[in-house]
Design goal:
Distance between the termini: 67 Å
Structural class: mainly alpha
Radius of gyration: 21 Å
Strand content: under 5%
Shape: globular
């Protein structure tokens, strides 16, 4: 559940540095989504967190929040497709320190492992970051970050469909609450105002 602090950090940073509007409806939707993620997390029976692990996850959440918020101005200059391409290649170059021994690993890699690596490169990385960058360019970083609450909920549904990992009732309820919170955040519900006609009597 700790990694879900990313939308919260992103919202505060976007409001503080870029003065983005984040009304009561969005805060309520964010709180509802966070509650749903909490149910998803505590539905698991075995979870143990060390202090160092918690600090590292919070640091990762803060770093991701800074990335989400700071990309707003760069998206205007480069566009979401070019920006995400630069970001991914930049991260790839920084991982070249692990290049020694790659040839040996590739020579013994199985087809299943290769497919898994390609899948992890595309679906959890390239496609989500493109979608997130697009949303940030359209609706702002604070509101786009709320969409990250969908990650735990979708993970449970995918595990149910693909891995036959039957979720508990609490997990299903938590997923539904999370989805409702995200929908509430992105909804455009407005309270209708009745117009009254004033007549002046002479």
């Amino acid at each position: 559940m700790i990694h879900t602090f990313t939308p919260i950090f992103s919202s505060f940073l976007a409001i503080f540095f870029f003065h983005e509007e984040f009304g009561k409806r969005k805060w309520v939707g964010s709180a509802v989504s966070f509650a749903g993620v909490a149910l998803l997390t505590f539905s698991k029976e075995n979870f143990v967190h060390s202090v160092n692990g918690i600090l590292l996850i919070l640091l990762a959440a803060l770093a991701e929040s800074i990335y989400i918020v700071c990309q707003k101005n760069l998206l205007k200059k480069y566009g979401f497709l070019s920006f995400v391409t630069y970001s991914i290649w930049g991260a790839t170059i920084s991982m070249l320190v692990f290049l020694p021994g790659l040839e040996t690993e590739l020579a013994h890699i199985s087809v299943r492992s290769a497919i898994s690596v390609i899948y992890l490169g595309l679906f959890p990385t390239v496609i989500p970051y493109m979608v997130l960058a697009y949303l940030t360019s359209r609706i702002g970083s604070a509101e786009a970050a709320i969409s990250l609450y969908l990650t735990p909920a979708l993970s449970f549904f995918l595990a149910w469909l693909l891995l036959k990992d039957i979720p508990s009732v609490v997990s299903i309820v938590g997923s539904i609450i999370t989805l409702c919170g995200v929908l509430l955040t992105h909804s455009k519900i407005r309270v209708p105002v009745k117009k009254t006609r004033c007549t002046i009597q002479k």
